[in-house]
Design a protein that fits this description.
This protein is mainly alpha-helical and 343 residues long. It has 2 domains: 2-168 and 240-342, no CATH class; 184-234, no CATH class. It is 53% helix and 5% strand. It contains 11 helices and 6 strands. The protein has helices at 28-48, 65-87, 115-133, 137-162, 195-206, 212-222, 225-231, 241-260, 269-285, 303-322, 337-342, and strands spanning 9-10, 16-21, 24-27, 50-51, 55-56, 181-182. The strands form 3 sheets. Strands 1-6 form a two-stranded parallel ribbon. Strand 2 (16-21) and strand 3 form a beta hairpin. The protein is elongated. The protein starts with 8 loop residues before the first strand and ends with a helix.
């Protein structure tokens, strides 16, 4: 849809689905996590169904799926939150307020999750579950790696709705392409260079006052045609990094793992390829994403790129180990009985 627009897309999406009380609201970001977990549950249930000659595709029986999903939900949420704090916002560890939940670490309603932390949390939760319940850990990791593309892609779309983790400024010449994004709330930033131009263009339309700039943002988001026409040319065009990463982290990554898993693989191979594939795609897609504020570059790499380099190296080492284990390959998402029997 973005490609069909005649000019840059003006972001007018509301991240809140339903306000509850104060800062507590039902947000699209939270629903994205819920949707990702539901898709994971459906996939695990499908993999637990018997296939001819009566063996399940995955290591879990149907009755264990919900139990395992609870483990990974806790692992992803705790890992994602702690990863965000440790990798990006260490000051939150000592941030306390007089309002509930009193500690910034627990203030989930304000957002703040890291995909790398969520991946670590998933791995830890899976290893603990496999040890306690007696299931094959590598096969569980393979299933989670395959379904992770669903959740990662949906999460990036939620980032777009939230207008967060935005892209770099588009530096081209002439009119910005239709796929670039402009954010009305940009005018609220102290360093916005065209505040006077916005005031000159819209004071005659909506009047002045102390609430002038917030009213401009609200009117633009509500669809006021006069405000949108005057404001849009003054805004900065950005790369749609959230949509790009939804495609790379979601669609392309899942296609890669699907192709690799067409024929049976040794346990752990899909998980290793996930680390490599996600790491490489994240390194590439981060080139159009604005570096995190207050997080210094290291060797010219953003924090996300640096963590992804570590992930790629870990994936290469893991692949070298699991691909040589003296165990038979197992079928994945497809049946491939004849191939598996031959192997």
């Amino acid at each position: 849809m973005l490609l069909l627009l005649a000019e840059s897309y003006l972001h007018r999406l509301d991240p809140v689905v339903l306000p509850i009380a104060g800062d507590f609201k039902i947000r699209w970001y939270g629903l994205a996590y819920l949707f990702g977990f539901v898709l994971a549950w459906l996939f695990y249930r499908w993999m637990a169904r018997p296939r001819p000659p009566g063996e399940p595709r995955g290591p879990l029986p149907p009755e264990a799926v919900s139990d395992y999903l609870f483990f990974i939900i806790v692992g992803v949420l705790v890992g994602g939150r702690l990863g965000y704090i440790v990798f990006y916002r260490q000051e939150m560890l000592i941030g306390f307020t007089s309002a509930f939940p009193w500690w910034d670490v627990l203030a989930l309603q304000k957002g703040g999750m890291a995909s790398h932390g969520g991946i670590i949390g998933f791995i830890v939760a899976t290893l603990l579950y496999a040890k306690r319940r007696g299931y094959a850990a590598l096969r569980l990791l393979d299933l989670g790696a395959y379904v992770a593309g669903f959740a990662l892609g949906v999460g990036r779309i939620a980032n777009f709705v939230n207008a967060e983790l935005g892209g770099r400024v588009w530096r081209g010449t002439g009119e910005p392409p239709s796929w670039t994004i402009k954010y009305p709330q940009e005018i609220l930033e102290p360093g916005f260079p065209r505040r006077d131009a916005v005031a000159d263009a819209l004071h005659p339309v909506i009047g002045g006052g102390e609430t002038f700039f917030p009213r401009v943002v609200e009117l633009a988001r509500s669809g006021d045609r006069a405000v949108i026409e005057a404001l849009t040319p003054l805004l900065t065009p950005y790369w749609p990094s959230q949509i790009i990463q939804a495609i790379t982290d979601g669609v392309i990554l899942m296609l890669l793992l699907t192709v690799i898993w067409i024929r049976p693989r040794r346990p752990g191979v899909i998980g290793a390829w996930f680390l490599i594939g996600y790491g490489v795609l994240r390194i590439l897609s981060e080139t159009v994403r604005e570096p995190d504020t207050g997080v210094a570059l290291i060797l010219g790499l953003t924090r996300g790129q640096l963590l992804s380099v570590v992930m790629v190296l870990a994936g290469i080492v893991a692949l070298a180990v699991v691909a040589r284990r003296p165990v038979p390959p197992v079928a994945g998402w497809c049946r491939a009985e004849s191939t598996e029997r031959a192997a």
